[in-house]
Write a structure and sequence with these properties.
With about 210 residues, this protein is an alpha/beta fold. It has a single domain, classed as 3-Layer(aba) Sandwich (Rossmann fold), CATH 3.40.50.300. Helices cover about 40% and strands about 15% of the residues. The protein is built from seven helices and seven strands; from the N terminus they run βαβααβααββαβαβ. The strands form two sheets. The protein has a five-stranded parallel beta sheet with strand order 2-3-1-5-6, with helices on both faces. Helix 2 crosses helix 3 and helix 4 packs across helix 6. The longest helix has 24 residues. Bound molecules: 3'-deoxy-3'-aminothymidine monophosphate and magnesium ion (MG). The site of 3'-deoxy-3'-aminothymidine monophosphate has 10 residues, from helix 4. Magnesium ion (MG) binds next to loops. It holds the Pfam family Thymidylate_kin.
């Protein structure tokens, strides 16, 4: 039986992930495809509210490990929903996922494998589109906001950690330097189009 595809969009802050996911959702809905967007962190649930406080309130102290596990808990909170959607043939589009979880925490100095461990067993995306700058000088595009992590030097460390996933067979690098929203949209589409009508293989798990 055909299941929905699991598609993740990943990248540093200010690379255009949310813009592209919104465009993609709109396009697919217009085509009558069954698709659902899940954004990590979704800040509306109880765990999400704690994460939001952690990201926006610099006075809110939490050990790096504890913050990391909250982000992972956020994913586990939604795993049943994701699996149900996939089984029903719905394409699930993830705006950030496990890769952000590992990259941001490992960039703080936590062990990379330790960071991945709590996410083992989660459904693994069929394809990950990693929006990235080829030239780090372009990373400041649009300027960062006020949240924790939105600092140039830290983002460079996060990028190095993200790149450790490069080489995995689901990983696709998508360079955004100097490209318009429309140009990036076209590239996103070429990567996603072969997945949108579903897959006959089982969902892989992180292991
Ligand atoms: N982030 C996101 C993490 O540190 N760990 C995670 O597991 C996830 C999903 O949250 N700077 C960080 C990366 C971002 C921040 O995300 C908020 P966004 O997409 O800017 O709302
Ligand atoms: Mg952000």
């Amino acid at each position: 039986m055909t299941r929905g595809a699991l598609v993740a969009i990943e990248g540093l802050d200010r690379t255009g992930k949310s813009t592209q996911t919104e465009i993609l959702i709109k396009t697919l809905k217009q085509q009558g495809k069954a698709i659902e967007l899940i954004k990590f962190p979704d800040r509306t649930t109880q765990i999400g509210q704690l994460i939001n406080k952690y990201l926006t309130d610099k006075e809110f102290r939490l050990s790096d490990q504890s913050a990391h596990l909250l982000f992972s808990a956020k994913r586990w909170e939604l795993v049943e929903k994701i699996n149900n959607l996939l089984t029903q043939g719905v394409t699930v589009l993830l705006d950030r996922y496990v890769y952000s979880g590992v990259a941001y925490s490992a960039a703080k100095g936590l062990d990379f494998q330790w960071c991945l461990n709590p996410d083992l067993g989660l459904p693994k995306p069929d394809v990950v589109l990693f929006l990235k700058f080829k030239d780090d000088g372009n990373m400041k595009r649009g300027g960062f906001g006020e949240e924790r992590y939105e600092v140039d030097e830290f983002q460079k460390k996060v990028k190095v950690m993200f790149e450790r996933f490069d080489g995995d067979n689901n990983w696709r690098n998508l360079y955004v330097d100097g490209k318009s929203i429309e140009e990036v949209r076209e590239e996103v589409w070429t990567h996603v189009v072969k997945y949108i009508d579903g897959l006959d293989t089982n969902v892989q798990l992180f292991k």
